[in-house]
Amino acid sequence: MEHQKSKEISEILTSESSPTMGRQGTTKGDELPNKSSPSMGNIGLLVEGYPVEGLSIGGQETCVIFPSLRIAFDIGRCPQRAISQEYLFISHGHLDHIGGLPMYVATRKLYQMKQPTIFVPASIKESVERLFDVHRALDQSELRHTLIGMNVGDEFQIRKDLKVKAFRTYHVIPSQGYIIYSVKQKLKQEYMTLSGHEIKSLRLSGVEVTYTVTSPEIAFTGDTMSDFVVDPNNADVLKARILIMESTFVDNAMSIEHAREYGHTHMSEIASYAEKFQNKAIVLIHFSARYTSEEIEAAIAKLPATLAGRVYALLQGF
Ligand SMILES: [Zn+2]
Ligand SMILES: [Zn+2]
Fold this sequence. Notes:
Elements: H1 2-14, E1 45-47, E2 50-57, E3 61-66, E4 71-73, E5 87-89, H2 95-98, H3 101-110, E6 117-121, H4 125-139, E7 146-150, E8 155-159, E9 162-168, E10 176-187, H5 196-204, E11 210-220, H6 235-239, E12 242-246, H7 256-261, H8 267-272, E13 281-285, H9 293-301, E14 311-313
Parallel strand pairs: 4-5, 5-6, 6-7, 11-12, 12-13, 13-14
Antiparallel strand pairs: 1-2, 2-3, 3-4, 8-9, 9-10, 10-11
This protein binds zinc ion (2 copies).
One zinc ion binds at residues 92, 94, 171, 223.
């Protein structure tokens, strides 16, 4: 039975490039339907040395994957490449960001992968627990995972060399973004000239020979109004090596007011705040299904010169 299920799912997974996968429906607050069917190949970006995969279409599905860190931000409808990621960070409870959550946990179990660790805003943790309880009642499985609720400002050490911090975002329902920090131990200046042997004996005698350097590597906003940019507590978001932020609307056909009404960002606001972004790279996501990749690229080309050459777009599915 299990074998049969594996076969079915692996068939589904290997036929990922099927053009029959529809993209119906639109971003909340965006009335235009019928995005044409995308190609679902594993085309991703290479940003600051990190492969970036996944897809993000406003109102439909958002899942952004850093396979080299085994991390996914939001799960969308649970695309195939998300399943092998061990850590999942959920920004908020809208279905285009959380809909595939039970499938993610169930499919990892099917492939006998380690149970995943899932981070959610603390305010929705109980609801997510209930969601899993409903699925356990439905399929009599355990759906084992570790669920961690985080409040804005909370930090969590993921691995020895990585930690995460939740930051405030501004959406129409409770939401938050995440900053991934690299954590490195460096030898203190005064011990630089010592031999390895001398350093080791110092360490064994209880001397603290290293200090910790943390630096913001990746920040992910999820859905938010542009207000997060001017939140004084979000300085590290604007300093992260890579900022992944939403830009649901890109042209004058949709106003900033419209974007704000639905808790989203308009690309013209990113242009206005151009001077504030110290990031080496900015990956724009969550474009409305109303746009073509050509329209999105044309809008990016018009961004201020201070952003030139460091703005990427996740255009999978457009
Ligand atoms: Zn969304
Ligand atoms: Zn949303």
